[in-house]
Specification:
Nuclear Transport Factor 2, Chain: A
Length: 189
């Protein structure tokens, strides 16, 4: 007897392969990333990040980089806010890109967190942890991603909620932090 979960997973993988082939065929026929993105209900950047293959113009060779998974970004996002809420800036600093360490010093991060504590109380849980492109398009859980993305989480505190956002580069280093009310607009990243 075939396990229904295994069968569904195999069907999903087959559907992913079909979609990848269809996008490759569409590109070979000259369709633009904007058109493909529109068909898939995403931006051209989201379509390119999911299906594209960048090539070096000098060599014509594919540009390879370390792809990261949505799960890795979600895990990092959750960890960042656990460290901030526990006051462990030393461990947080290890996750920061060297270029942003001076922009996110301990005094700024902890001062900001103190204001959150004064407004909504201590962090209790994190929910709806997901990943978006800097423009806001949500990235599906099964996608491999390349380039800077944003981990988003709802920080459920004693007396309210705030939204936490962590900009992450391709090497899984934090390049930006943001804590705002859930309805704050516009968002810088």
């Amino acid at each position: 007897m075939v396990d229904p979960i295994s069968a569904a997973r195999a069907e999903l993988e087959h559907a992913r392969q079909n979609l990848n082939r269809a996008v490759d065929q569409a590109r070979a026929e000259g369709r633009t990333w904007a058109d493909i993105g529109k068909t898939l209900g995403m931006t051209r950047q989201a379509a390119f990040k999911r299906f594209g293959r960048a090539t070096n113009p000098a060599t014509g060779q594919p540009i390879t980089g370390e792809n990261m998974s949505v799960e890795q970004v979600r895990t990092l996002t959750e960890r960042v806010f656990q460290l901030i809420s526990s006051g462990d800036y030393a461990s947080l600093e290890e996750l920061l890109h060297p270029d942003v360490r001076s922009e996110l010093p301990e005094v700024l991060v902890m001062d900001t967190w103190s204001r959150v504590l004064a407004e909504v109380g201590a962090l209790e849980t994190q929910t709806d942890i997901h990943v978006v492109l800097p423009g806001g398009d949500r990235i599906e859980d099964d996608e491999q991603i390349l380039g800077t993305v944003v981990g988003v989480t709802t920080l459920n505190c004693e007396a309210g909620e705030v939204m936490g956002r962590v900009a992450v580069d391709n090497a899984l280093r934090v390049v930006g932090l943001l804590i705002v009310s859930p309805d704050h607009q516009p968002l810088p990243f």
